[in-house]
Amino acid sequence: MKPRVSTISGIVGVFALGIFGGIWAQAFLMPYLSSHPNFQQWRFVKDWNTRATVVREQREVVIRIDDAAERVAERAEGMTVGMESRSGEDRVVRGSGFAITSDGFILTLASLVPQGYATRVYLKKGDDPVSAEVLKRDFQKNLAIVKIDARALQTTGFALDDSLKVGAPVVMVAKTVEAGSLITIVNQGIVRTRDKDIVRTNIFDKATLGGSPLLNLEGDIVGLSMFDSSGRLIAIPSSILRAFSGF
H/E/C letters for each residue in 48-104? Predict the structure, then answer.
């Protein structure tokens, strides 16, 4: 039994010496030989000197949500409009909408363009509002399309429903008339729940911001904003908006 143990110990010892010898050669012997003129022409030293070490560069790009939301808001301001419908002097309905074509087709809530009301659209602060014609209105879906005389309006695309996940960040961009002046209001949050008929968020705001576009961080439309009785933003999802508008 003892000779077998001695044989195994000898083999282990040889392996251990080989490992430590290799480490010593790489750390001390080869650097010495490669730096000494008398040994630099030896083939195995030249091979060691010319060996290649490949280093793969990895880059990590971090984009803060606040920065992305700011960029989305800047781009979306040009496509967002303020809506105002009047009947007489006392009955006024205000909200938002957004351009779906560059030549003046606007998507908004049907509740913002009631029958018998005259509707005007505000494009930019300081500009006079323009008259709008209601082309399509569906009170059951609470959607409407109006047409204004305008050119070169900014637009964006509709997001695919499958791309909108619970917890995804979203940005609301609204325009509304307050004290006779058009102002832009931005709010941001996340998707709390979603189904084929409604998107619910954790955003709370004023009901007069209804009709504003809700966008993802890529700047695509994920919904059209409404507000429940508690002031929480809920949205008509992009699939319904696309089917209604024909885009």
Answer: HHCCCCCCCCCCCCCCCHHHHHHHHHHHHHCCEEEEEEEECCCEEEEEEEEECCCCC
